[in-house]
Amino acid sequence: MEFSRIIEIKNLVFLLCVVTACKFTFVMLHLHEYTQPLANKALQPNFNYKKGLALLYRLSL
Question: Which residues cross the membrane (predicted)?
Answer without folding.
Answer: 12-31
